[in-house]
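Task: complex structure prediction.
Instruction: return structure tokens for all chains below.
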Amino acid sequence: RKEVEQDPGPFNVPEGATVAFNCTYSNSASQSFFWYRQDCRKEPKLLMSVYSSGNEDGRFTAQLNRASQYISLLIRDSKLSDSATYLCVVTQAGTALIFGKGTTLSVSS
Amino acid sequence: GAGVSQSPSNKVTEKGKDVELRCDPISGHTALYWYRQSLGQGLEFLIYFQGNSAPDKSGLPSDRFSAERTGGSVSTLTIQRTQQEDSAVYLCASSLWGTGMGYNEQFFGPGTRLTVL
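Output:
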């Protein structure tokens, strides 16, 4: 079983739509959680950290459920510029980041 | 300020040749990571340097892969006797401190696209 699993998509949505991505992780010792964004043929960039209490950054909301080992990302009012691959990332103390394969989002006008 | 830089941006080599990939981390960052991303795959951890500690080499796929970090700054990833399955984008990242010390954003370089013919 992969350490971090994501639905690869693609998710094809119209502008203005709300879209949700899910991610599960297998190692209960995981301590930190992130969503990264990767544009085509570019390097990944941090989108937001994920906390158990849930956190919001503008149109983006991230949620962590430690009991279920489940992470989510909600994007409201999708923009064309949101089209990218979204990478679910976990880490444990003293280790490097563990990436999911990513979920591809395509927002169309 | 300057971000993470990597060179070369593209490298085409013949099977069996050795290659060296370079990473210049953000100044002052103590932690440096190498990953690779094969077509359609997620990022795969290769090796992690933290300060003067022994590197975490647990992700290196074979003994043909090695890396060093000189003076706590620049790092070189070396692949000996390259194989076609080594073709991938090799990404370097740096962070202010290591992963054992709380929130810790990793900043990625643009990567080196390696093609082994």
